[in-house]
């Protein structure tokens, strides 16, 4: 009887040790593929393309005007006075500066619009990843497309320990 109790205790102890040493459950996802499959992403892409076209049309008109003024200047340059040449060159230079300024502004506004339009899509994807990770008891989820950690147990975050080690509050 005593042997049986000792053997049973050893089995339970071995089982507890084996259970405590189980490897963390890891998962991965290719978030780029996930986003491509989301209908909201297609609509966001379409909205961004329309928004970008409005800027491109405006810039194209300015470029045509710049080219026309440049051609007119070259064609009439020999008959112009020096004062008129300076005025026309200044007009052309000002137009070129406006084009560059408009292009820069368009890029900034387009970047802001992308952030505004894509953020809800990214949030939805992130919530779904978090939910699946918790439902399926994953410890960590990695993003194959970005090489990033998308989900990690809070208990495994060693930031407070590292801050304490460095004396950071």
Total domain units: 1
Poorly predicted regions:
8-12
Distance between the termini: 57 Å
Query: Topology as H/E string?
Result: HEHHHEEH
Q: Tell me how many strands there are.
A: 3
Mean model confidence by pLDDT: 83
Helix content: over 70%
Radius of gyration, in angstroms, nearest whole number: 32 Å
Strand content: 5-15%
Shape: elongated
Helical/strand content category: mainly alpha
Query: Main β-sheet, in a few words?
Result: 3 strands, mixed
User: How many helices in DSSP terms?
Assistant: 5
Strand sequence of the main sheet, in spatial order? Answer: 1-2-3
How would you describe this structure to a colleague?
This protein has 169 residues and is mainly alpha-helical. It has one domain. The protein contains five helices and three strands; from the N terminus they run αβαααββα. The chain has a three-stranded mixed sheet. Strand 2 (140-143) and strand 3 (148-152) form a beta hairpin. Helix 3 packs antiparallel against helix 4 (82-135). The protein is elongated, with a radius of gyration of 32 Å.
Spell out the key features of this protein.
single chain, 169 residues, mainly alpha, three-stranded mixed sheet, 5 helices, 8% strand, elongated
Summarize the structure.
The protein has helices spanning 2-20, 31-36, 39-76, 82-135, 159-166, and strands spanning 26-29, 140-143, 148-152.
């Amino acid at each position: 009887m005593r042997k049986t109790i000792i053997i049973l205790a050893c089995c339970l102890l071995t089982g507890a040790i084996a259970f405590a040493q189980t490897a963390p459950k890891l998962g991965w996802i290719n978030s780029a593929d996930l986003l491509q499959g989301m209908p909201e992403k297609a609509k966001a892409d379409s909205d961004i393309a329309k928004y970008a076209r409005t800027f491109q049309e405006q810039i194209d008109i300015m470029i045509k005007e710049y080219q026309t003024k440049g051609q007119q200047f070259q064609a009439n340059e020999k008959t112009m006075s020096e004062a008129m040449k300076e005025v026309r060159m200044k007009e052309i230079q000002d137009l070129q500066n406006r084009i560059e300024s408009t292009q820069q502004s368009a890029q900034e506004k387009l970047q802001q619009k992308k952030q505004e339009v894509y953020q809800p899509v990214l949030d939805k994807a992130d919530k779904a990843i978090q939910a699946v990770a918790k439902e399926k008891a994953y410890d960590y989820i990695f993003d194959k497309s970005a090489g990033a950690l998308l989900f990690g147990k809070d208990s495994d975050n060693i930031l407070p320990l590292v801050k304490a080690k460095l004396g950071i509050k």
